[in-house]
Design brief:
Layout lengths: L7 E10 L2 E5 L5 E5 L20 E9 L5 E4 L60 H27 L8
Parallel strand pairs: 3-5
Antiparallel strand pairs: 1-2, 1-4, 2-3, 4-5
Length: 167
């Protein structure tokens, strides 16, 4: 008897492992029902569902070139078709909905104002004069030194003052 993918057969469980069950099919060939194909729900212990000697109906899922046969108990059970979900329109076909301020997701933006946290940075609607590279670099260095000195002060106060180390 030739075994074809998609056919449903009666078989007998001949062995159980932690990864599945071996089922002897008509004609003497043996196939494997993987643990994920035993039931529709999660199977932690296959022994709760099958025992050696059980007669089961299986569906042939695949047949490898080397003779290995993949089986499924789950797919052998006939269940009513679910109604298909209505097809959604493609993204370009959907009407666009611009946000107004009350609908806009907050994300990482601060509540209560348009300025970034900490009060730094330009106001969004304020034009910034164009600066030369040297001016931008000196401003960056000044800001950077201020931040480093603030961090050092905070770190020293947590350690117990003036960089004292605990031993």
């Amino acid at each position: 008897m030739s075994i074809e993918v998609g056919s449903k057969l009666q078989g007998k469980v001949t062995g159980i492992t932690h990864f599945g069950a071996f089922v002897e099919l008509p004609g003497g060939s043996t196939g494997l029902v993987h643990i994920s194909e035993v039931a529709d729900n999660y199977v932690k212990d296959i022994n709760e569902f099958l025992k050696v000697g059980d007669e089961v109906t299986v569906k042939v899922v695949n047949v490898e070139n080397d003779g290995k046969i993949g089986l499924s108990i789950r797919k052998a059970v006939d269940r009513p078709e679910r109604p298909a979900a209505p097809e959604r329109p493609a993204r370009s076909e959907r009407p666009s909905r611009p946000f107004n301020n009350s609908q806009r997701p907050s994300g990482n933006r601060p509540q209560g104002g348009n300025r970034p946290q900490g009060g730094r940075g330009p106001r969004p609607n304020q034009a910034r004069p164009s600066l030369s590279f040297e001016d931008k670099m000196s401003r960056f260095l000044k800001d950077s030194e201020e931040r480093i000195s603030t961090l050092k002060r905070q770190t020293e106060s947590k350690r117990g003052g003036r960089g004292a180390r605990r031993g």
